[in-house]
Write a structure and sequence with these properties.
- The chain is mainly α and 295 residues long.
- It is 48% helix and 11% strand.
- It is built from 11 helices and 8 strands.
- The strands form 3 sheets. The chain has a 3-stranded parallel sheet with strand order 1-5-8, with helices on one face. It has a 3-stranded antiparallel sheet with strand order 2-4-3.
């Protein structure tokens, strides 16, 4: 399934309750990341949550069409669930002050929950096997060109951090009742990286967007932009080209042949809709501005 976006409006019935049901979002993230039909037993095994709570979560997710029920079929003996979307966008009326204040309060709650999770799960021994820690606090002056370059590079980082991630699992449905290894969070990110340990389940991706900016999350426009369809290696090549590296330099960095980089380049150009390195750099740095002009 290609990456898809589900748009719900904040004013619709039940959306606020869904936003506040963080436990259900973690169940959805587990189902989504599996990339296949997943049974209740597999979800229970992979999350450590009890069956009653999981059924309550799934009922909530079904109500908003974030997952679908898949009936049992051989060799899978139980019904299962599969994610219908990879990303959730909550739209809102930016001219309604009461709504914007509600969302500001919700964002503050989310920040406080994040801080509490980091405090509880941060690795006191800083074991490098779990991740790495980096912080930079600095006051600087950027020229207009430097600020544009910083924005371009940060958009690349954000695009990488928010892209949907899937587990590498078998595609057949023969895992009924089998044990699934938990995949708990190992990094907390606010452009400050803090290694995490313990059984903290990942959150699903939920984005707040003013209604006037919903064009950014239109599935057809997202895929026409092409970035979300790139494979990890294609993305690495694209980032190198956008940074001005030659194909030979990218090949050295990736430890592959120049021919391999050329093949990945041509695939990426086709997906993004460009024909040169210069067009690629312009597309990445000016993508949001071009989309705004089109809308």
């Amino acid at each position: 399934m290609k990456n898809t976006t589900k748009i719900l409006d904040y004013s619709d019935d039940g959306v606020l309750d869904l936003m506040r049901d963080r436990a259900a979002f973690k169940t959805w993230e587990f189902i989504r990341s599996m990339g296949r039909t997943t049974t209740i037993e597999e979800i229970r095994s992979g999350t450590g949550l009890n069956t009653k709570a999981l059924h309550e979560h799934i009922d909530h997710l079904l109500q908003h069409e974030l997952v679908k029920l898949v009936r049992a079929r051989k060799p899978r003996k139980s019904i299962g669930y599969r994610s219908l979307v990879d990303r959730l966008v909550i739209s809102f009326d930016e001219d309604d002050e009461s709504i914007t204040q509600d969302l500001i309060a919700f964002s503050e709650e989310t920040r406080e929950k994040y801080d509490a999770n980091v405090k509880q799960h941060a690795d006191p021994d800083f074991n490098p096997e779990f991740g790495f820690r980096f912080q930079l606090r600095e006051t600087v002056h950027f020229t207009e060109d430097e600020f544009a370059e910083l924005k371009r590079r940060m958009l690349s980082v954000v695009s990488f951090l928010t892209m949907p991630r899937h587990r590498k699992t078998q595609t057949n449905d023969d895992a009924d009742g089998s044990e699934i290894e938990k995949r708990c969070c190992n990094q907390a990110i606010k452009i400050e990286l803090v290694p995490l340990i313990g059984d903290l389940l990942p959150n699903a991706s939920m984005i707040m967007s003013p209604r006037s900016q919903l064009w950014q999350w239109d599935n057809e426009k997202i895929h026409s932009g092409g970035m979300s369809t790139l494979s990890p290696r294609e993305r690495e090549v694209v980032m190198g080209l956008a940074d001005g590296l030659s194909r030979a330099q990218i090949a050295d960095r990736m430890e592959v042949s120049v021919n391999t980089v050329s093949t990945l380049t041509q695939r990426s150009y086709k997906k993004i809709g460009v024909t040169s390195q210069a067009q690629l750099a312009a597309r990445i740095s000016g993508h949001a501005r071009e989309k705004l002009a089109e809308s």
